[in-house]
Every structure is written in structure tokens, then in C-alpha cells.
């Protein structure tokens, strides 16, 4: 499947085969496919489809003491500062795949402006938001609680996702203008600039990751230069019974690298040392976490971060996640230098991002075991051909 922006902007929703049944899709009598924050905030009790298993709802009673990596020295070419940043990153990625960065070079005014534009879309009437609904099998567009895909363990949130890649055409700005109209032209320009800034930061992070792994400094940067990435805007409304539901369930991101802006409302938890730990929002900092695809690019040496989002009854929460993804046809495999340095044998077969993306959209609901199950599927005798 081609997940490039051109498909989103010019093609209708494609009907693709369902690989393993409906994996919890909506059926007759299920939850309506368009459930937005206005509906959720009116609920005095959590609807059945939004109730999560007790095992997923165990509260986090401890704050994560993750590395706060200052990137200023790295950007200035300071060798010692770069080595210190790489060491901190390596320690966290071997353990749980999560850290935060400061002095990251992204204009804080741009981040604030992008945050200000979130409400402009999410406060629209649901019928307006539905005009840019996500197509089956695509990660792009609007989704209300993923109710178009599932009928149980629904997340207490709504999302708007954009495709992004570098090129002569401003794909995010064009999407907003063509799908949402003239009122959203400025919004499109803001998110276009935001994606460009995040793409540049992501490339710098991959350079630091390579340094931390002691492989060719430019290896991952060159791999992702022509990335086809995703920007996802998240809106978590208040919930009157937050102990029963989740904004996002426990999962590892299937993508390569996530750069997350979160507002000052707590809600992000990370699973470290076999317990859930809360992440304190730090003004001006950005959250970085490793996804499944980058974990595969390190042969599993760097952990894909298991995390979730909780909700509260007092205040809405907003976040913006930039997901760095390889171009569709790039073959995902670890560098030979890393295998030789660490004396490792291969843990995962070669794959392309388009195959993995399609697996997560049609075949399997992403969680902490997605990468391994995808690998097993690729290696199985019955499924030895790519999707």
C-alpha cells in the first residue's frame, strides 16, 4: 500500500482486503462510527465500548525519572556535550526507549501557534469533522475514538492525522485547503511549517542515535532523508469516570520515532521496570520515544517504548505527535556494523514500512507485541509472501 500524501489528497478511500476478519470492527448494534469529544463529554457514565480491562487500568503512582537531554552542545558541534547526550540516550533506549529533549531548535512560538490551532478543528460540529474522515486502511484524516475500526476498548479521544514528506508541494497545507476549506488555510500553513521543523529535528535525533550505537553517524539520517511521516493531533476530552477508560491504551508505536508535544496537563504514562510511571510535562521540552520500526533498525537493541494516555475529569488534554517513518519501499534492517560490534544475530526479517503499516491497519491492533507478531507472520509458511 502506498501511504504517500498523494494518495490521501487525490484518491478516494480504497477498499483493501481484510487479512484476518474484522478484528473488532463495528457491526450492527455496535458503537456509532462518529463519536467526537462533544459526545464524550456529555456522558455521565463511561459507555461499555470505552471500558478497559482492569489490567490496563492499573494506576501509575510513581513519576518517571527519565533523561532530559540538552541538544545545544550537539547543535554547536561540542564533542563532549554530544558524547554525553549520546550516552544518556543509549541508557534510556536500552532500558525503555524514552527521553525528553531541550534546546531542540524548534521555535517555541511555532509550537504554541500549532497548539492554538488544535481547538479550531476539534471544536467543529461532528458533521464537519467527518468530511475528512479517515479512509479504511489509511492512518490519515479524522477519527473519533477509532469507532470506525473497533467496538471495544475504544480510546477516549479524537484525532486528526496528516501525511507529510519533503518536496515541492506543501502537502499538509494543500490537504487543509482542499479538504477543510479557506477557513483552514492558515491552519494548513502552520502545520506545514510544524512538520518541516519536526522532520529536521527528527533527522538530528537519528544522527545522535547512530552516535549512541557507535555506527556510521549518518547511517540513519540518510535512511530517513526522504521519509514519509505522519503528524497526529490528539484531543482528550474530560471523562467523568477516568478510572474506567483510557485516552490511548497500552501500545508501542509501530513507526520509527515519535516526537511528542504535550500540553501541561498530565496524562502520559510509560511502562518502566514492570510498573506504569507518569511523565511530568516540562515546559519547552519535547518527548522522544522509540517505535517498533526503529527498534528493528537496531535489531531490538533499543526498546520500543510501551506507553499509554490516561484521562481526567477536570481538564481537556492536547498533544501533537510527529511520527518519523521511512519511505514506503525502504527495506528495514539493522546496519551490519551494529551486528558486528554487538555480536548479534538477526532477530527480525527484512521488511518495508508499507508492509508493516498495512499489517497494523488491517491485520492487527497495535500493542507491545506487534513487531514480533508481524515478524512471525512474515516468517510463517502460510504467509511467506509480502502483503
Automatic annotation (TrEMBL):
Cite the entry's keywords alphabetically.
Answer: Iron, Metal-binding, Oxidoreductase
Q: Which InterPro entries match?
A: DIOX_N, IPNS-like_FE2OG_OXY, IPNS-like_sf, Iron_ascorbate_oxido_reductase, Oxoglu/Fe-dep_dioxygenase_dom
Q: Which GO terms describe its molecular function?
A: gibberellin 20-oxidase activity; metal ion binding
Signal peptide location: none
User: What Gene Ontology biological process does one annotation of this record name?
Assistant: gibberellin biosynthetic process
- Cofactor(s) the protein requires to work: L-ascorbate
Q: Which reaction does it catalyse?
A: gibberellin A12 + 2 2-oxoglutarate + 3 O2 + H(+) = gibberellin A9 + 2 succinate + 3 CO2 + 2 H2O
Where is coiled-coil annotated? none
Keyword Transport on entry: no
User: Taking every annotated instance into account, which residue ranges of this chain make up the domain Fe2OG dioxygenase?
Assistant: 226-326
Question: Which pathway does UniProt place it in?
Answer: Hormone biosynthesis; Plant hormone biosynthesis; gibberellin biosynthesis
Q: Please give the family membership noted in the entry.
A: Belongs to the iron/ascorbate-dependent oxidoreductase family. GA20OX subfamily.
Can you name this protein? Answer: Fe2OG dioxygenase domain-containing protein
Q: Which organism is it from?
A: Prunus armeniaca
Amino acid at each position: 500500500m502506498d501511504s504517500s500524501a498523494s494518495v490521501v489528497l487525490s484518491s478516494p478511500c480504497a477498499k483493501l482486503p481484510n487479512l484476518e476478519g474484522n478484528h473488532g470492527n463495528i457491526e450492527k448494534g455496535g458503537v456509532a462510527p462518529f463519536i467526537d469529544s462533544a459526545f464524550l463529554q456529555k456522558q455521565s457514565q463511561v459507555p461499555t465500548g470505552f471500558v478497559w480491562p482492569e489490567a490496563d487500568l492499573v494506576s501509575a503512582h510513581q513519576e518517571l525519572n527519565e533523561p532530559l537531554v540538552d541538544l545545544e552542545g550537539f547543535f554547536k558541534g561540542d564533542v563532549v556535550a554530544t558524547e554525553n547526550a549520546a550516552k544518556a540516550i543509549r541508557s534510556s533506549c536500552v532500558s525503555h526507549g524514552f527521553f525528553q529533549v531541550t534546546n531542540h531548535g524548534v521555535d517555541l512560538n511555532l509550537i504554541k501557534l500549532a497548539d492554538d490551532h488544535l481547538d479550531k478543528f476539534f471544536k467543529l460540529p461532528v458533521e464537519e469533522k467527518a468530511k475528512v474522515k479517515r479512509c479504511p486502511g489509511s492512518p490519515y484524516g479524522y477519527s473519533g475514538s477509532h469507532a470506525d475500526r473497533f467496538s471495544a476498548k475504544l480510546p477516549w479521544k479524537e484525532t486528526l492525522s496528516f501525511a507529510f514528506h519533503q518536496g515541492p508541494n506543501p502537502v499538509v497545507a494543500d490537504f487543509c485547503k482542499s479538504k477543510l476549506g479557506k477557513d483552514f488555510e492558515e491552519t494548513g500553513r502552520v502545520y506545514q511549517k510544524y512538520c518541516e521543523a519536526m522532520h529536521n529535528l527528527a533527522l538530528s535525533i537519528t544522527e545522535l542515535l547512530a552516535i549512541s550505537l557507535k555506527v556510521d553517524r549518518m547511517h540513519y539520517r540518510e535512511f530517513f532523508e526522504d521519509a514519509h511521516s505522519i503528524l497526529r493531533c490528539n484531543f482528550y476530552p474530560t471523562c467523568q469516570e477516568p478510572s474506567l477508560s483510557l485516552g490511548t491504551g497500552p501500545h508501542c508505536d509501530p513507526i520509527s520515532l515519535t516526537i511528542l508535544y504535550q500540553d501541561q496537563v498530565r496524562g502520559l504514562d510509560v511502562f518502566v521496570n514492570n510498573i506504569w510511571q507518569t511523565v511530568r510535562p516540562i515546559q519547552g521540552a519535547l518527548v522522544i520515544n522509540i517505535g517498533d520500526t526503529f527498534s528493528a533498525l537496531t535489531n531490538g537493541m533499543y526498546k520500543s517504548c510501551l506507553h499509554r494516555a490516561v484521562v481526567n475529569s477536570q481538564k481537556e488534554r492536547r498533544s501533537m505527535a510527529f511520527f518519523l517513518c521511512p519511505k514506503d519501499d525502504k527495506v528495514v534492517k539493522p546496519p551490519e556494523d551494529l551486528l558486528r560490534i554487538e555480536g548479534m544475530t538477526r532477530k527480525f526479517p527484512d521488511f518495508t514500512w508499507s508492509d508493516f503499516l498495512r499489517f497494523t491497519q488491517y491485520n492487527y491492533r497495535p500493542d507491545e507485541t506487534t513487531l514480533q507478531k508481524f515478524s512471525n507472520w512474515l516468517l510463517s509458511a502460510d504467509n511467506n509472501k509480502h502483503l
